[in-house]
Design a protein that fits this description.
The complex is a heterotrimer of chains A (about 280), B (about 230) and C (about 350).
Chain A (H helix, E strand, L loop, with lengths): L1 H31 L6 H16 L7 H22 L6 H23 L12 E4 L2 E4 H23 L1 H11 L1 H6 L4 H23 L10 H14 L5 H21 L5 H25 L1
Antiparallel strand pairs in A: 1-2
Helix pairs in contact in A: 1-5, 1-6, 1-8, 1-9, 1-10, 2-3, 2-4, 2-8, 2-9, 3-4, 3-8, 5-6, 5-8, 9-10, 9-11, 10-11
Chain B lengths: L1 E10 L2 E11 L4 E5 L6 H8 L7 E6 L3 E4 L11 H8 L8 H7 L1 H5 L10 H13 L5 E5 L7 H18 L2 E5 L3 H7 L2 E6 L2 E7 H6 L1 H8 L1 H11 L1
Parallel strand pairs in B: 3-7, 3-8, 5-6, 6-7
Antiparallel strand pairs in B: 1-2, 1-4, 8-9
Chain C lengths: L1 H10 L3 H19 L3 H24 L7 H16 L5 H23 L4 H21 L9 E2 L5 E2 L2 E2 L4 H22 L2 H11 L1 H6 L4 H26 L2 E2 L6 H14 L6 H20 L8 H20 L4 H21 L1
Antiparallel strand pairs in C: 1-4, 2-3
Helix pairs in contact in C: 2-7, 3-7, 3-10, 3-11, 3-12, 4-5, 4-6, 4-10, 5-10, 7-10, 8-10, 11-12, 11-13, 12-13
Classes of the chains: A mainly alpha (about 280), B alpha/beta (about 230), C mainly alpha (about 350).
Chain lengths: ~280, ~230, ~350
């Protein structure tokens, strides 16, 4: 039983990062119809930057907060490259963000080297249902839930959030009332930077990240986002957590490190299942 | 307060508006009629700033707000949020002003815009445009898909707005009778050009409107009648 | 056929035909002169893969970020076929593109109904799963990969050394280019081009959208599988590390740089990017530069190439040069007439 709880908690912590990255995909896709391949790179940046800032320069919470804000700004820059040029079709923007993720890799190797990095986190253990779990992992879950709640409030209660939702649901009408849909797109990219950076900051203390971690992070996040149909942050959260837990359970009970593969397989299955419902809609 | 001069607008290589000139004075109600594809929506969208002219000018003394064709709600958002977003470009947003002008909206402020009836949505669309305190209300197809009794009520609201607030109205409308009834002046558009402008009463009698809508069919009918 | 080509060249030397002939001659001579055949072979194989990818991306507007999955499928067909199933090498090579195409069709039917990014990530997921499967199941190589792939040949007459494989690869490239030319200029090809323009318009004109997209996807996978099969014979060893994700991304870069939706874009892209990378490699291994200089420059170049090409020369080299030359010729013609 305690083994199960450990796998569950570890899986939830990992899945939280997928969920955060996935919600970054969702926010950007809803407003711009673009899938931001560099989403994983933002997580790695978050990990690297927080490690540097926390290494004796800034205290906890401040260091993480600064990191996340910087990632937000970098996210906006990614957006400028991806959608800055008028009339870039979404699929081209996807490949442009692939190029951006490569620039990220180059920059990360240049600034931080090729070795995996693990910033200091919350030390110590806590007891949950009779099992000893790292407090860092519990922290990840709590912060993720708070982040999702904040995101939901942002979209429903703040004026900018409402403008973002409007741009996503009816860009024509949004333009009519004077909303600059492209600028909203950049806001979405900034938001996704914050979410991605947060994912990296939360995950890295337990799972060290390096310049090549951007690919599995992006794939895990995309898998979570696919579960939410690339539109629903709540379903993305569920999907991410489910993916993380499923991966850990297979790693624990079935032996071997099939986590990414399980996530990918589930993602493919969901996409294929979704295609059938797509066909149904077309048949109507 | 709206001066359009020799406006030319293109869609790629096709010419949608070919040298259109039109004036709307302060507090005037002007109807814009014509067959499908005449360029009426194009004209409205250019006035709203959504389309850029290839040549010619659009000069506005004041603010323009559009009530778009098909209502164009933000369906998953509440009526209140839809209205609030209408005030995006102004500083001092006042929902109460709009609720005073269109009291029915206050009653449905919490409902999701996507769940409302066509007539209710049209009222929300008008309210949303009014949030910007416009000097000119540009309405694209007021009556499309709505029952006559609903349209009458909306027309009443427009008359009230025009007489009480002095809001000018440029009304694109397929229903020619409604358009002439509501607006003192009318402009007939066909194939991107202005065919004729003048008082609605006169235009209602003339051939110009018939020709614009039915073209050769009108002459065919005359020939048929002679047989 | 050679006479036909020669007569066309001599009567009205069109710049394009001249270029093609020159390139063909250079390609045939190069293997005899170059010291490093591995680089040349990899370039030719990349050209085969990217020709298919270019058509896929250019005509059906779909991106495949994991084309390596189909290269791997072809390579596995050859490796498993010859070492475990005791198939004759030639049969295994002929099966490679077919297996890859079938694999693509299986995945493509559901995925191509969705937006482009689903296929992009789907193929990437497929690649990683193929890699994982190769590492897990012993029949696919397990921890050690598959080695001991026999040389290609028929009966007792087998290929000796690298040269025969290089010429075979060049021959396959020519075949692939010819097939692409035929496909693009056929009725099917015109239907695909209509799809690239507007799906609704094409469908109302009777073009079966989904089936056409799957066909193009399978065709591009077939090309990749052929390249995979050839590479399995060339380096007679395959392992999961033979098909890294970065390689698949490189294919996309080559396709974009060369020109999406063109027949020669694959060749041009493969040559340009390969040569550029080789130059960078030499530069970054100069003494005085840190060891991380190589990957930094490589990634930075990939990123910059991709971004600049897509944003500023979105049609790629081939169409841009075509258009430029076209304008030049127009001016000459007008000059002569006037």
């Amino acid at each position: 039983m305690s083994e199960f709880v450990t796998y569950l908690v570890t899986g939830i912590a990992l899945g939280s990062s997928f969920a955060l990255i996935g919600s970054g995909f969702v926010v950007v896709h809803r407003v711009t119809r673009v899938v931001n391949f560099a989403q994983g790179s933002l997580a790695v940046l978050g990990a690297m930057l927080s490690a540097s800032l926390l290494a004796g320069r800034l205290p906890h919470v401040v260091g993480e907060a600064v990191t996340v804000l910087v990632c937000g700004v970098v996210g906006v820059l990614v957006g400028v490259i991806a959608i800055g040029r008028r009339g870039t079709p979404p699929l081209i923007s996807l490949i442009v963000t692939l190029g951006v993720s490569m620039l990220f890799s180059a920059a990360i190797i240049w600034l931080w080297g090729q070795d995996p990095v693990s910033p200091p986190g919350l030390d110590g253990f806590a007891t949950v249902f009779g099992a000893e779990v790292e407090r860092q992992r519990l922290l990840v879950l709590v912060v993720t839930l708070v982040a999702f709640a904040a995101l939901s409030l942002f979209f429903s209660r703040t004026y900018v959030g409402k403008a973002l939702t409007a741009s996503a649901s009816n860009p024509y009408a949004a333009r009519l009332v004077g909303i600059d849909v492209r600028r909203m797109g950049l806001v979405a990219f900034g938001l996704s930077g914050i979410l991605g950076g947060l994912a990296g900051v939360l995950l890295a203390p337990s799972n060290a990240l390096s310049f090549y971690s951007d690919l599995p992070m992006a794939l895990g996040g995309f898998a979570a986002a696919v579960f939410g149909g690339l539109v629903s942050p709540l379903r993305t959260l569920v999907g991410g957590l489910g993916l993380g837990v499923a991966g850990q359970l297979t790693a624990g009970y079935l032996n071997g490190s099939y986590q990414t593969e399980v996530a990918l397989l589930l993602m493919l299955v969901i996409m294929i299942a979704r295609s059938r419902s797509f066909a149904h809609e077309e048949a109507k | 307060m709206l001066h359009i001069s020799d406006l030319v607008v293109r869609y790629g290589s096709a010419v949608a508006l070919d040298g259109v000139s039109l004036d709307v004075g302060r507090g005037e109600m002007v109807a814009l009629v014509g067959p499908n594809g005449a360029g009426k929506s194009t004209l409205i969208n250019t006035i709203s700033g959504l389309l850029k002219p290839a040549s010619g000018s659009v000069a506005v003394e004041g603010t323009v707000a559009q009530v778009p064709e098909g209502r164009q709600m933000f369906p998953d958002m509440s009526v209140e949020d839809n209205l609030l977003l209408g005030g995006w470009s102004i500083r001092n947003r006042q929902l109460d002003e709009v609720f005073d002008l269109l009291p029915d909206l206050a009653g449905m402020r919490r409902r999701k815009a996507g769940r409302l009836s066509g007539g209710q949505q049209q009222m929300v669309a008008i309210g949303r445009a009014l949030m910007a305190r416009p000097d000119l209300l540009a309405i694209d197809e007021l009556s499309l898909g709505l029952a006559p009794i609903v349209v009458d009520e909306l027309a009443e609201h427009l008359r009230y707005l025009n007489s009480e607030r002095g809001t000018a109205v440029l009304l694109v409308e397929q229903e020619v009778t409604l358009a002439f009834d509501l607006c003192a002046r009318a402009c007939v558009l066909e194939a991107g050009r202005v065919v004729v402008t003048g008082p609605s009463a006169e235009l209602a009698e003339s051939d110009a409107v018939h020709k614009a809508y039915f073209g050769d069919l009108a002459e065919l009918a005359e020939v048929e009648a002679l047989r | 056929m050679i006479a036909h080509v020669l007569s066309r060249v001599m009567s009205r030397p069109q710049p394009r035909t001249v270029l093609v002939v020159l390139a063909g001659v250079a390609a045939c001579v190069a293997p005899l002169v170059l010291p490093d055949l591995t680089f040349f072979m990899r370039m030719v194989l990349a050209a085969i893969v990217v020709t298919g990818l270019s058509i896929l991306m250019g005509y059906s507007g779909q991106a495949s970020l994991g084309q390596g999955a189909f290269v791997a499928a072809g390579a596995l067909t050859v490796a498993v076929g010859t070492t475990k199933l005791e198939l004759p090498p030639l049969v295994a090579l002929l099966l490679a593109p077919l297996v890859a195409a079938a694999f693509a069709a299986l995945v493509g039917v559901p995925l191509l109904r969705l937006h482009g990014h689903y296929l992009a990530f789907g193929t990437l997921a497929l690649l990683l799963m193929v890699q994982a499967a190769m590492g897990t199941f012993d029949v696919l190589g397990g921890a050690f990969g598959i080695s001991g792939i026999p040389p290609l040949g028929v009966g007792n007459r087998v290929f000796v050394g690298q040269l025969p494989y290089v010429y075979l690869a060049l021959g396959c490239l020519g075949l692939v280019l010819l097939l692409s030319h035929r496909t693009v200029h056929s009725r099917f090809g015109r239907g695909i081009q209509a799809l690239a323009g507007s799906q609704t318009a094409a469908e109302s004109a009777g073009v079966p959208a989904n089936r056409s997209k799957v066909t193009i996807f399978a065709l591009s996978a077939g090309y990749a599988g052929l390249a995979g099969g050839l590479s399995a014979f060339f380096t007679p060893y395959i392992s999961p590390d033979s098909f890294p994700a970065l390689e698949s991304f490189t294919y996309v870069i080559m396709a974009v740089v060369g020109g999406l939706g063109t027949i020669w874009g694959g060749v041009v892209g493969a040559v340009v990017v390969s040569v550029l990378l080789q130059v960078l490699n030499t530069l970054s291994s100069q003494p005085g530069l840190p060891p991380t200089a190589a990957p930094i420059m490589q990634y930075a170049t990939y990123g910059v190439l991709l971004i600049l090409a897509l944003l500023f020369m979105p049609r790629g080299i081939v169409p841009t040069v075509d258009a430029g030359v076209g304008r030049l010729l127009e001016r000459q013609r007008v000059g002569v007439a006037g």
